[in-house]
Amino acid sequence: MNTRRLRLATALAAAALASVSLAGCSGAAGAASEPAADPSSLVLALVPSQDQANLVDTAKPLTDMLTEKLGIPVTGVVSKDYQAAVEAMGAGQAQIGFLPSLQLWQANDRYGASVVLQTERNGNITYPGQFMTNNPDKYCSTPVVERDGMSFCNGADALKGPAGLDSITKIAGAKVAVLGPGSPAGYIYPMLALKEAGVDIDSGFQKVPVTANDASVLAVYNGDAEVGFSFWDARTLVQKDKPDVGQKVVVFGLTNEIPNDGVAVSKDLSPDLQKKISTALEEYSATDEGSAALKAVYSITKLAPADPSSLDVVARAAQELGLQ
């Protein structure tokens, strides 16, 4: 396990440098060469949407399945952040990526990766980002209600965005748990909602940096931040260890709907291997075993053929914040 993680850290740290080196040798010589053979092993890049320490182990049933179906060893690795996964794919350090919507778009736009699958969660192909708080008296203009053990107010129990955005201006001056700028639900969409509501997103509140969605939930739960951003409903990620999270952390707002994350494969793989990968993952997601494995990794219930054009909306949202 430690050795595997060390290989990951080395590979991803080298990704940016490797991409520069590869760009430097991609001239006329490449045009005359034969297409490279498919690799003898594959790396599946995972982004840290939850506890990084256990994500590779959690994904092992998935990588074991791919190894068996493809006849090629597949190793799962966790990137240090969302953008590192994109750069690893661009540098040839990873051939398959489970990526959020913005990073799917970037992998395709920058490096020609094929966006082959997108996820479904409970039958939905989009999801909202959520605003959550440990201070409902401040942010809830309607009574707090419970749904499946989780607390909501301001109409956020509809589970579809947008909702409750009239209350987000109260964030001014508060401590807010914020993911990195590459996160659609943990940064881009809530920040855009705040900007559109007239909140100064540069200095209007105190940012508490977190690395993953579960960490954002815990920051609110533990009182390190008054408000946190995450995907819906990241509270379930910590519910096993914090059974009362649904009562202590209240969702009071939902962003506009975000295109679901999905799977990209490197353009350097042959069309036949790309097809084998996407077919294996889609068919696996349709089994009870596969659905359980994918749910454990990213709360995914199904993988379906992708609509790459659906990702344009998140790219435009990032551009509004100057992130493109």
Please describe what this structure looks like.
The protein is of the alpha/beta class and 324 residues long. It has 14 helices and 13 strands. Helix 9 (184-196) links the parallel strand 8 (175-178) and strand 9. Helix 7 packs across helix 14 (312-320) and helix 9 (184-196) packs across helix 14 (312-320). The radius of gyration is 20 Å and the shape is globular. The two termini are 35 Å apart. Residues 1-34 have low confidence and may be disordered.
Give the tags.
single chain; 324 residues; alpha/beta; 6-stranded mixed sheet; 5-stranded mixed sheet; globular; disordered N terminus
SSE inventory with pairings:
Layout lengths: L1 H12 L1 H10 L3 H5 L9 E5 L5 H7 L1 H11 L3 E5 L3 H9 L5 E4 L1 H11 L2 E7 L5 E8 L2 H4 L5 E3 L2 E3 L22 E4 L5 H13 L9 E4 L3 H9 L5 E5 L13 H4 L1 E10 L2 E4 L5 H15 L2 H11 L3 E4 L6 H9 L4
Parallel strand pairs: 1-2, 1-3, 8-9, 8-10
Antiparallel strand pairs: 3-12, 4-12, 4-13, 5-10, 5-11, 6-7
Helix pairs in contact: 5-12, 6-7, 7-14, 9-14, 12-13
Overall morphology: globular
Unreliable residue runs: 1-34
N-to-C span: 35 Å
Fraction in helix: 40-55%
| Helix run count | 14
